[in-house]
Amino acid sequence: MSDRKPKSLRERGLKVLRALVVPVVLLVAWRLAVQWKLVNPLLLAPPEKVITRAVQEVSEGELFKQVLASVQRDLIGFAIGTFAGIVVGGFMGASKVVDRVVGPTFHAFKQVAIFAWIPLMSVWFGTGELAKVAFIAFSAFFPVVLNTYEGVRGVSRQYVEVARVFRFTPWQVARRVVLPAAAPSIFAGIQLALFYAWLGTLGAEFLLAAGPGVGNLMVDGRESFAMDKVLLGVIIAGAVGAGLNAAATALEQRTLRWRVRGV
Predict the structure, then answer these.
(1) pLDDT digits (tens, 9 = 90+) for 119-135
(2) 100 and 139 assigned to the same domain
(3) For 228, which of 49, 133, 182, 234 could close a Cys bridge (C-beta 3.0–4.6 Å)?
(4) Same domain, 68 and 193
(5) Which of 216, 232, 237, 230 is nearest to 55 (CA)?
(6) Sign, CA torsion 33/36/39/42
């Protein structure tokens, strides 16, 4: 037991070090490019200036407010889109009739680039918070539908037949047979949805009405030609996206631990 723990700690440490290699290389290249004047400093602010900007934003209380607004908006839209996607994908996968009726329209809609829906959504919902959340939900919706559909369609019919022999109700079949078997595919869709929802959050903040958010931070920096502010927004966007992805991966591993035990 004592041997396993240090080994696990070493593995985690090596994993963290490997993950830091590329960011450190990029940081060094960034600093050298500015120091050796390989790029225009007005277009690429040095790292220390970005750090100074971050300290300033934190001390003024603006940075936390911007990040919180984006994450809250993202999670609300993600939750709505994911729930709707699981329902629609589940019905399409479980019922051939629903698949034949809804499937062609859905597959036609998913061919449209997601940002092409913004003009239509701005007409339907305006350009405020409701439109932003609706666009984020729409961004999360499609990957969840597709993966839920594939997961449900991939459930072995033998499992369903056995459940019917034991006189399971349709709800029990869905809850005890279909959902556990389709769970890996559904979680893959949820992870994709989290990624697309965060992209949708930044896009909505860029393209719709101004309001608190990481996207707005970058827009403000662009309009005032403050590249340190723009770069700070880019770094925060990447960090939040990585954090959300790590949280989704941890949740999947925790929820699907039975798969590992069963292997």
Answers:
(1) 888 888 888 899 999 99
(2) yes
(3) 49
(4) yes
(5) 232
(6) positive
Residue 262 reports pLDDT greater than 60: no
Residue 29, domain extent = 1-39
Interior/surface letters 125-145, b for 16+ CB within 10 angstroms, e for the rest: bebebebbbbbbbbbbbbbbb
> Number of structural domains, the chain?
2
Give the single-character DSSP code of 226: -
108 lies in the same domain as 198: yes
Nearest CA among 190, 189, 208 for reference residue 122? 208
- The model carries a pTM of 0.85
d(CA 35, CA 29): 10
CB 94 within 8 A of CB 104: no
Q: What is the CATH number of the domain that holds 163?
A: 1.10.3720.10
Distance CA 61, CA 6 (A): 40
CA-wise closest residue to 42 among 226, 212, 206: 226
- Outline where the chain has alpha helix (H): 4-35, 47-59, 62-94, 96-109, 118-125, 129-153, 157-165, 170-173, 179-207, 214-223, 227-255, 257-262
